[in-house]
Specification:
- InterPro entries: BaeRF_family10.
- This is Stalled ribosome rescue protein Dom34, pelota family.
- The structure is a single chain.
- The chain is an alpha+beta fold.
- It has 11 helices and 16 strands.
- The strands form 4 sheets. It has a 5-stranded mixed sheet with strand order 7-6-5-8-9, with helices on both faces. A 4-stranded antiparallel sheet has the order 3-2-1-4.
- The radius of gyration is 26 Å and the shape is globular.
- It starts with a helix and ends with a helix.
């Protein structure tokens, strides 16, 4: 995902007392509206501090907020904890809902969601003699491949024999170029750690080029955008390629949710519902956790063994230790799964048959249930 090392550091951060402030907001597209951001964020922080019993204020953040004035239309994430020197600010690739939370560690669900919806991906533009490849978020970082220009195939000669020779050579050069471009795209994707690719070019060229892509690369191609490479402007490509990635992610979400819900119905290494999913998380049995991204659920965390519990529990049923209330137990579940090297997938509302959470398990249900 984007910001992988930064994100991993946040997930592992935790302090004994609820003094970590997490703030998300979006900078307006209109600079004249920015003056309204500070009062809005201050209100969120005051409310979050009151809910947690913390004395955190925004006094030390005003200058930092002002420094994001030029991030027009972009989301911002900030994490502050004076007790351990945590102070992080991040420009996000897309807008984000206003959120402020105070807890013992950074609140990362919005970051998980935007990382899932807006992954880094590769853009490749290919024609018969050239290829240009770059990451979606760095259009200036272009890797170029240029091969011998193809001779026009309308050259005539003795009884057409020369023309046939030119055409044969032209075809050979084209295939050689496609193979070289495919190899460079593969190296680029591995070097950048990218799993998704959008191919761009003439409609009649891309299918031929696809045949030269290694099999393992074809599954990474999320779609095709028709462009004339001669009029290419890398800075203007992202608005055309982002919808291709969005469709790929939407299809993935729908298929994954349907498969997990179906498996859960037959108890095939999957569960749905808050109680069963929390039990699976507590047993370190979750391989993939699916969350309805529009739902927060209050809950509790055991101060002794760390088990996650539904709201209303006064003591841990396993170790009888006291519990502390948390404003979003799905956040706690997400972090627990990530710390155990599992995967968290935030989903649009409604894909889990009305439920807030589902899980694909690392082991049969009978194993963790006992």
């Amino acid at each position: 995902m984007r910001y992988a090392s930064f994100f991993e550091r946040l997930v592992e951060t935790e302090i004994p007392h609820p003094e970590v402030l997490s703030v998300y907001y979006t900078v307006p597209l209109d600079p004249a509206e920015f003056d309204g951001v500070l009062p809005r964020v201050e209100h969120l922080v005051r409310q979050a501090a009151a809910d947690s019993g913390s004395r955190i204020t925004l006094a030390d953040l005003r200058d930092t907020l002002a420094a994001t004035r030029d991030w027009l239309g972009r989301g911002v994430a900030m994490f502050v904890a004076g007790a351990n020197g945590l102070f992080e600010r991040l420009k996000l690739p897309a807008p984000v809902d206003d959120t402020a939370m105070v807890g013992t560690r950074p609140y990362v669900r919005p970051l998980i969601a935007i990382g899932h919806r807006c992954p880094r991906y590769g853009i490749a533009v290919v024609d018969e003699a050239h290829a240009w490849i770059w990451p979606d978020d760095e259009p200036a970082e272009i890797t170029a491949v240029t091969d011998e220009a193809l001779r026009k195939p309308n050259y005539a000669g003795w009884y057409g024999l020369s023309e046939y020779g030119v055409r044969s050579r032209a075809e050979g050069l084209r295939i050689r170029h496609y193979r070289r471009a495919a190899a460079e795209i593969r190296r680029f994707m591995r070097r950048e750690g990218l799993d998704l690719l959008v191919l761009c070019g003439h409609d009649y060229e891309i299918p031929v080029f696809m045949e030269e892509l290694p099999v393992d690369m074809r599954s990474k191609v999320s779609g095709v955008v028709a462009v004339d490479p001669r009029t290419l402007n890398p800075a203007n490509m992202k608005p055309r390629t982002d919808p291709v990635i969005a469709r790929r992610i939407a299809e993935y979400d729908e298929n994954l949710a349907a498969a997990v819900v179906s498996d859960a119905a037959t108890e095939k290494n999957a569960v749905t519902g808050l109680a069963r999913c929390l039990a699976a998380v507590n047993a370190r049995a979750v391989g993939t956790l699916l969350l309805d991204d529009g739902i927060r659920i209050r809950g509790a965390v055991c101060r002794g063994c760390g088990n996650l519990l539904e709201a209303g529990e006064r003591a841990c049923p396993d170790c009888d230790a006291d519990v502390r209330a948390v404003p979003d137990v799905l956040e706690e579940a997400a972090v627990a799964v990530l710390r155990s090297r599992g995967k968290v997938v935030p989903l649009p509302s409604g894909l889990l048959d009305g439920g807030p959470v589902a899980a694909r398990l690392r082991m049969p249900i009978a194993v963790f249930a006992h």
